[in-house]
Fold:
Amino acid sequence: MEYKKEANHVSDTIGLSKSLFIRGLQCHKSLYLHRYYPELKDAIPPSREAVFETGTEVGIVAQSLFPGGVNVPYEQSLENQTELTKDAIEKGAETIYEASFQYDGVFVKIDILRKGKRGWEIYEVKSSTSLKDIYIPDAAVQYYVAKGAGLDISHAFLIHINGQYVRRGELEVEKLFTINDITYEAARMQETIEGEIAAQKIMLQGGIPKADIGLYCREPYDCDFIGHCWRHIPEGSVFELKGSRAFPFTLYKNNILFMKDVPVYMLSPAQRLQVEAATEKKTIVSKELVREFITSLWYPQCFLDFETLSSPIPPLDGTRPYQQIPFQYSLHIVEKEGSNPVHREYLADPKEDPRRKLSSKLLSEIPEGACVIAYVASFEKGVLEDLAEYLPELRSRIKIITEHLIDLALPFQKRYIYDWRFRGSYSLKVVLPVLAPDLSYDAMEIHDGGMAMQAYEKMRTSEDPVEIQKIRNALLEYCMLDTLAMVRIVKKLKEML
Structure:
């Protein structure tokens, strides 16, 4: 879930918090399991922890829009937090960060509470770059509780990141954020909020709700009880079919559980191929199309992979929110047919702006006119285009690389080759163990891009040289495997011909 840190446990007298209410709004069963069987939760992936940290960081930066406010800390008990808020209001505070209120058995913390000309204003902060309908209940339940607790609420606002902002020098907070007035929407939901709170309280007093799996398991947020609630879904089920998320649920509700039992006329050509491969446990190869792809490659071949930073708060001049900023690359170069690949790599000092040194070194290592190969090359292309925009003196040379960029994911995405073990995916992490089973990310300390980003950030803040070197080695090992994997995949495709 996207929510910032909030009390996960509330007292029996309170019953619910904002985050618990939103959980229950998505699925009553999820709320019930969270309350009574939290041990059934899936392990929290590092990527989700990073989302929590990002939300907290954005919330703190947004406070600068209204400086000088009183902060109500999380470390206090819920009762103390509400008392501190009440005390701040009585003492004349006009801006309160994390203002806390209780009403109707619900506890909420308001990101920013500000006294306006016509009454108190609620500001809910999101790290998204747009206003989404799913954010309205967040503000609406805060509106309900604060107003019920006796506060005169005049407005509710939603603050989100302005995705078009480009940093020039010091961070300009007023330009970084966009503020939307959602008072009408929040006020219109009040009756719904009251009814849902009552329904959730009644539900929590009974047994486990009888809720089958559905689209709401992942919409609007991924539930953390999927492992428990989906344990009855077997291998080879209709949920492995690629395409519309709703289609497998239509089949499931009509008692069609296995892919092999789906009527052929209901499947797209790509899905038919997937079902055929899964049913017969085989690999399907269109040799003509694979040959066409292989012959589109030329030498020297340069297999390229970037690792990047991405933050809603642009950290460097000339960057936008969530822009992918490269701090590392791996490059395997195959000069000619049959020659052994030569490896080149670069990992920037985390305390410096990496873009100029990284770009210069990369350009010095890619031979002129080389065939540059990446997996899902649109990512590498976007990174290169941003570098060209920031470094105009290198623009023409970088443009040549982007013009010579080939996407190695294409034969798998277009299903020129499809193995039943791909399970509808064309991700490198899925394709590699099938085509090159001796290569694996499993035993690595870092095994995906999100972990690489977090590790690099840890390098930036660490003062321990031993820890820094350990992280550096892990990053280099991970990124190197990405490009070595591509070398091996091209070799395997040739062998298939």
